[in-house]
């Protein structure tokens, strides 16, 4: 499956990239400020692709701040370096020429209806592209976003999920251009229920003994600490990998909802999804994934990490 991936590469984005290169055909990666500042996100995407044996995939830096707000990172979750503060060496190559927004605009025009776009960070790059081409979403085969919390249990505020909270105006631009046949969101609720790496899962991952498994395990160590502090339970989430798995293998979806969704941008409710479930609601603009095959997802994850790239 030809993929274009937009990411604020932190530790779970990196694991999603491992899934993408294993089962997809990644044509380009674009980066955006989110978990970490833009330059760090770009560095992490390069490190991950190179380690996975895909040093030919270009990485294009994009927006270094939300559309209208100052940037906010999640370095208290993913580490200062976004990769669990594991001291990874610099990548052997640099970013590719061309701004991410230009790539988001030009690649689907060159390959109309072929590319699947997966966004794993704040929606700033996609929104900036949409503001220049209102038909952009129709040029993709489908657009999958790790975004929102359809059950309104957030991870930044009680009701808001990070990618939407970080740039709610961008999320609104995307939602106002979306139709359910074109755009699917996989939210924090899905991750919380079906993509938590329990201590057993973590042991299985480590036991693979491959470089990619060790990498995936180590870079998530600050996320594991954060999740334990916040929930009181062992086990950390992999929201971006489960979104990527759904894009690559839509048969993993066991329940979905088509709804009219907007996002709150006011101070008190910033980033909260506004899902209209009234009988007289406007027509749906979005598909929300609500349940996935947890064991199927975890099998894919282990498969991707068991893979040993050719030198
Ligand atoms: C999202 O925010 C980031 O912390 C993760 O990488 C994921 O994209 C989860 O809310
Ligand atoms: Ca992310």
From TrEMBL:
GO molecular function: purine nucleosidase activity; uridine nucleosidase activity
Keyword Hydrolase (UniProt): yes
Single biological process term from Gene Ontology: purine nucleoside catabolic process
GO cellular component: a single term: cytosol
SUPFAM superfamilies (UniProt xref): Nucleoside hydrolase
The keyword Hydrolase is annotated on this UniProt entry: yes
Disordered: region residues: 70-95
Keyword terms of this UniProt record: Glycosidase, Hydrolase
Sequence ranges assigned to domain Inosine/uridine-preferring nucleoside hydrolase in this UniProt record: 3-298
Protein name as annotated: Nucleoside hydrolase
Organism lineage: Bacteria, Bacillati, Actinomycetota, Actinomycetes, Streptosporangiales
